Amino acid sequence: xxxxxxxxxxxxxxxxxxxxxxxxxxxxxxxxxxxxxxxxxxxxxxxxxxxxxxxxxxxxxxxxxxxxxxxxxxxxxxxxxxxxxxxxxxxxxxxxxxxxxxxxxxxxxxxxxxxxxxxxxxxxxxxxxxxxxxxxxxxxxxxxxxxxxxxxxxxxxxxxxxxxxxxxxxxxxxxxxxxxxxxxxxxxxxxxxxxxxxxxxxxxxxxxxxxxxxxxxxxxxxxxxxxxxxxxxxxxxxxxxxxxxxxxxxxxxxxxxxxxxxxxxxxxxxxxxxxxxxxxxxxxxxxxxxxxxxxxxxxxxxxxxxxxxxxxxxxxxxxxxxxxxxxxxxxxxxxxxxxxxxxxxxxxxxxxxxxxxxxxxxxx
Length: 364
Description:
Layout: E1 3-4, E2 9-15, E3 20-36, E4 53-69, E5 79-84, H1 106-112, E6 116-120, H2 139-155, E7 168-174, H3 176-188, E8 196-200, H4 219-222, H5 224-227, E9 234-235, H6 241-244, H7 257-265, E10 270-271, H8 272-276, E11 290-296, H9 312-320, E12 328-334, H10 348-363
Parallel strand pairs: 5-6, 5-7, 7-8, 8-11, 11-12
Antiparallel strand pairs: 1-3, 2-3, 3-4, 4-6, 9-10
Helix pairs in contact: 2-3
């Protein structure tokens, strides 16, 4: 079982203008999970026999930024979004902290529409604990930590004495962050703490669809000053905006070149395990809540040149197969958006879609 409790609350501050109040929190998580001995096991141990698994029992700190509207309506008071970033990103993906890029903040966008959020860093990433052994950072351990954060949100206040626990937790993931939410839905099934899942940039993935791992060398080789003491299993993209350009639409007029530079400058790490285990979303889940999948029509990894996203009806039928027990499953192809759909000029389209689904799921 996974156990955790809230730890230190940092300073409270107002962000994104007068409509949103945000605070930093650190949440200890006790992870008790079975991990594949081989972190390159593409199904994260879900299809492995016992002899190929190992037991992880460790406590880590998960960092997050909690944002809540200054004026909170009764309708939304019990609803929170748990935001989970993708591979080589961190919680800043949901709110690029640069004045020029404020329009790209989903935390601010949803706060303006009366919704609270908690954007977290994965274990091993950002300001969360970074295990010395990168093979401890796999989908099983990270997804378990995310699920426990969701449970905490429903059982205790993350700001003691300030607000009550939430009654509805909606998970929103980006790319591999959607993978963590999916992995948790597989392992938790009907007992999942999530009242709805919004999975972005994450269609069913087959071997050969990901960029080669050679584009993600050891982080310590890419930036020795920042990551020189890390296990070589911690990886990141090479220092080149052209490498991260795959996360954007192919038309350079669709995004700011400054955003791409900012993206490359502020990138974070992933691990070999969390790179290979993204394929777990082809496995069946008995999750029973509603699910929405949002993918950009100009996603260069999964849509452009594949024909996959041209027929939404066919795409929806294919994406529904691993989710036989869900209350509902909808697929939206966001026109013009790239893989990291929060960061291009079309971001408001997906943002409005996310808010629509959050409100829909919260009413169920």
